[in-house]
Design a protein that fits this description.
Elements: E1 2-7, E2 14-15, E3 32-40, E4 46-48, E5 54-55, H1 63-73, E6 78-82, H2 83-90, H3 97-104, H4 111-114, E7 122-126, H5 134-140, E8 145-149, H6 154-162, E9 166-169, H7 178-187, E10 192-195, H8 199-207, E11 213-219, E12 228-229, E13 244-251, E14 258-264
Parallel strand pairs: 3-10, 3-11, 6-7, 6-10, 7-8, 8-9
Antiparallel strand pairs: 1-2, 1-13, 4-5, 4-12, 11-14, 13-14
Helix pairs in contact: 2-5
The chain binds NADP nicotinamide-adenine-dinucleotide phosphate.
NADP nicotinamide-adenine-dinucleotide phosphate is lined by residues 37-38, 45-46, 54-56, 82-85, 126-129, 131, 175-176, 197-201, 204, 229, 233.
């Protein structure tokens, strides 16, 4: 599969495979947090299906983007996600990403091992309610799981712990702040944290300027819809984060075409 790099200019066509491999910095002593979204041309990241469940639109999800999503996963010490996503894995609506990736992309099987990374990144689940099925999640996800919550309700914390999930209660706010998450990444020596959660979690990270990079695939298709999500949901930012383009690639042969953009978000 060939793609056309547009920025920086002056490069010829190249293979899509490998476009994002070795792109996430590994040298920082501080955690490096990178996020990834797939968005339609009209800005949708999720819509409701005919059963009323909100999820990634079937009209934008595609294999070429999925390959790059997995290339970013391969470089992570930790994957940061939401209680909602954890529940989808627990109930079998989504498969564990690394297990699916190894089946699908044998060429990536040894990538982590060759770089001294563990077989599975730590899965960090951010949740206020802790209402995902913790035991089922443990069964569905082979790697270590840590739940982070601001929940002061001891019952839901102890039921997650009883199911074998390490559960950390942080902060004094109703929700977990980006700053609190960054402290946890630091304490645990995590260097590359891959944010695959949705718009509320992304907002918390942006509000505290603790997300360094955004990988954004824009599919050249207008999908419409009334009940939609965009990449960020939450109060207006008093200091809106600015992005600086690192690289941009046109997936010319895809149908519809799509753009793979990578932005730096905060000074690092
Ligand atoms: N197109 C894409 O690239 C893309 C990427 C990601 C997600 N999505 C889609 O976007 C939709 C929304 O995703 P999502 O529900 O996972 O994302 P979200 O809006 O970030 O998170 C929703 C849930 O995560 C927990 N949460 C998030 N931030 C938190 C915080 N700061 N503190 C405490 N808890 C927090 C809460 O869980 P509890 O309710 O458990 O307390 C909250 O209800 C989904 O349909 C998903 O498929 C699309």
């Amino acid at each position: 599969m060939a793609v056309l790099p547009l920025y920086p200019s002056g490069q010829g066509e190249r293979s899509l495979e490998g476009l994002y491999l070795d792109d996430v910095p590994n040298s920082q002593s501080d955690p490096f947090v990178y996020a990834n979204f797939l968005v339609s041309l009209d800005g949708r990241i999720a819509v409701r299906d005919e059963n009323g469940h909100k999820g990634l639109p079937r009209t934008t999800a595609n294999d070429r983007d999925w390959r790059l999503y997995i290339e970013l996963l391969m470089q992570a010490d930790a994957v940061l996600t939401t209680g909602h996503h954890a529940q989808l894995i627990a109930i079998g609506n989504q498969s564990d990403m690394m297990t699916a990736a190894h089946k699908r992309y044998p060429d990536l099987r040894n990538y982590r091992r060759a770089r001294g990374l563990s077989g599975h990144p730590i899965c960090i689940v951010v949740s206020s309610r802790l209402n995902f099925r913790a035991e089922a999640l443990k069964e569905a996800h082979p790697g270590p799981i840590v739940a982070i919550t601001a929940q002061k309700n001891g019952r839901s914390v102890s039921s997650a712990r009883n199911a074998g999930i390490e559960t950390v209660v942080v902060g004094t706010e109703a929700t977990v702040t980006g700053r609190a998450l960054m402290d946890i990444f630091r304490e645990r020596g995590l260097r590359r944290v891959y944010m695959v959660g949705g718009p509320r979690l992304f907002h918390a990270l942006l509000a505290d300027q603790v997300v360094h990079r955004l990988y954004l695939t824009t599919v050249g298709r207008v999908i419409g819809g009334d009940d939609i999500e965009t990449q960020v949901r939450g109060p207006l930012f008093t200091t809106p984060p600015d992005a600086r383009l690192r690289h941009l690639t046109l997936d010319r042969d895809a149908s519809p075409q799509q753009m793979f953009a990578c932005y730096d978000l905060a000074p690092h």
